[in-house]
Amino acid sequence: MSTQESRTAAGERERLLERRPLGRTGLLAPALCIGTSAIGSIPGIYGYEVGTDQALEALRAVFAGPVPFVDTSNSYGGGESERRIGAVLREIGGLPPQFLLSTKVDPDASGDFSGARVRRSLDESRERLGLDVLPLVHLHDPEKIGFAAAMAPGGPVEALVALRDEGRIGHLGVAGGPVGMLQAFVDTGLFEVVITHNRLTLLDRSADPLLDRCAEVGVAVVNGAPFGGGILVKGPVASPRYAYRPASEGVLAAAATMQRVCDEAGVPLAAAALQLSLRDPRVSSTIVGITRPERLEQTLELATTPIPEDVWPRLAAATPPEDGWLD
Questions:
Q1: Helix/strand/coil (H, E, C) string of 33-101?
Q2: Which helix (H) or strand (E) holds 171?
Q3: What's the Cα-to-Cα distance from 277 to each of 54, 196, 197, rounded to whole Å?
Q4: Which structural domains are found in the chain, ordered by start?
Q5: Verdict on whether the full-model pTM lies above 0.70
Q6: Distance in angstroms (rounded) separating the CA atoms of residues 170 and 164
Q7: C-beta neighbour count of 316 within 10 angstroms
Q8: What is the C-alpha separation between 193 and 122, in angstroms, rounded?
Q9: For residues 191 and 164, is the Cβ–Cβ distance under 8 A?
Q10: pLDDT tens, residue by residue, 86-137
Q11: What is the mean pLDDT of residues 307-326?
């Protein structure tokens, strides 16, 4: 890398780590967010286990590191992600100043996602994390019960609003899959942040209408899974899955073309995948999961790797057609 490229990368790193307003919440967050689902050890999704020692080592690095935004959930690893985060927070004397920690409420093992369950979910998270008030809490995967049930009297949304009004939650978000459902929640006016995943990547742009709507109404968008679960890091041969399921032939072919484009340009495919999200002005922050301390620096390197401008139209041309995108 030339001296000028090094200066450009350093300036870009500083910009990415700067805390800026998260929509209309009044909270501040950088353009990168550390995801901790895999830290909870979920081999059924990720294909590998993460032992306690490794997870704690990674989390110690996170909370001593330069990215002051961490996302978790009640359900990750059956609560193990939150337990491990809480263990490290107790070691270091609490959440470091200026760090933003967000979590999510989830149904229990029986599928109960009632308002009463939401209250229990929040209490579980507070106990595991060691935090009395949670600044940002998301309704997680509401597609499990549907929009109508989520909004019904006695349902999870009503409970979340009440918990916010009681001062136990700072701000409300919604995190899920189907774009149309997320947009319906945005249109209620109750949510200030949306997490979408696997739907704004090099291989899938189905989140575009949601992002446009959020920009119109001032709702912050946090984009998860910019690597599509691994295919945009390891490539389609080593990781032939997209969004945690076997990838279609069209997606595999597109990923192979994109990998070739990046190889010819001398840039990692993962850098292009991450920067697609980071360069979108509609995205407030992008979630990248880590399970090892060294992944922090590797992520920052990917985020600031110079990418020739002529690479972007070539990657766009390789995007699979809309009928192959997620819903």
A1: EEECCHHHCCHHHHCCCCCHHHHHHHHHHHHCCCCCEEECCCCHHHHHHHHHHHHHHHHCCCCCCCCEE
A2: strand 169-176
A3: 28, 12, 11
A4: 3-306 (3.20.20.100)
A5: yes
A6: 6
A7: 12
A8: 18
A9: no
A10: 999 999 999 999 999 999 999 999 999 999 999 999 999 999 999 999 999 9
A11: 96
